[in-house]
């Protein structure tokens, strides 16, 4: 008898994946009409320093998916630990997520959020299918590190970072 894979318990898998703590970002872009779009994402990773490449992934069902799919540029705004409200704001469904939100236009027009711990302005270099998500690969064209403590997410909630007492 062959080993037949059993269906995965998605809740249990989500809980297991949640033990890996990640940073919290708001990824922003502009659509063809110039309208800004943004989405909270913790599916972000550094890939390479030479060339400077990052990746992030977005659900195919996201309201802003068409804007990111068609845009050539985006900004990864790495949120600071006091920006939980901003993370929640961009995680909610809304027609105009930038109503009453301060931002500056980046090098290619995508919104840069003030107060972020760091931001990376990227040119999209590839898109790859990833199940119910699309994986975006971006080349960092410009960045800033404001040296604030980042907001992190793990075990289904926002967390704060602190030095480990055993770290030298």
UniProtKB/TrEMBL annotation:
The keyword Cell cycle does not apply. SMART domains: Flavin_Reduct. Residues 17-160 form the Flavin reductase like domain. Keywords: Oxidoreductase. InterPro entries: Flavin_Rdtase-like_dom, NADH-dep_flavin_reductase, Split_barrel_FMN-bd. It comes from the Bacteria. This is Flavin reductase family protein. It comes from Ralstonia soli.
């Amino acid at each position: 008898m062959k080993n037949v894979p059993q269906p995965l318990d998605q809740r249990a898998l989500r809980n297991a994946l949640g033990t890996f703590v990640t940073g919290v970002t708001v990824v922003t872009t502009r659509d063809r009409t110039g309208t800004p779009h943004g989405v909270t994402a913790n599916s972000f990773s550094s890939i390479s320093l030479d060339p400077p490449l990052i990746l992030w992934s977005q659900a195919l069902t996201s309201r802003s998916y068409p804007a990111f799919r068609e845009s050539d540029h985006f900004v990864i705004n790495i949120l600071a630990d006091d920006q939980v409200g901003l993370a929640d704001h961009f995680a909610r469904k809304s027609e105009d997520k930038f109503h009453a939100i301060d931002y500056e236009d980046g090098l290619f027009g995508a919104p840069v959020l003030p107060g972020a711990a760091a931001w990376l302005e990227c040119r999209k270099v590839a898109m790859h299918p990833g199940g119910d998500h699309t994986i975006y690969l971006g080349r960092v064209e410009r960045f800033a590190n404001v040296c604030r403590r980042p907001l992190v997410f793990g075990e289904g909630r926002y967390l704060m970072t602190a030095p480990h007492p055993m770290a030298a």
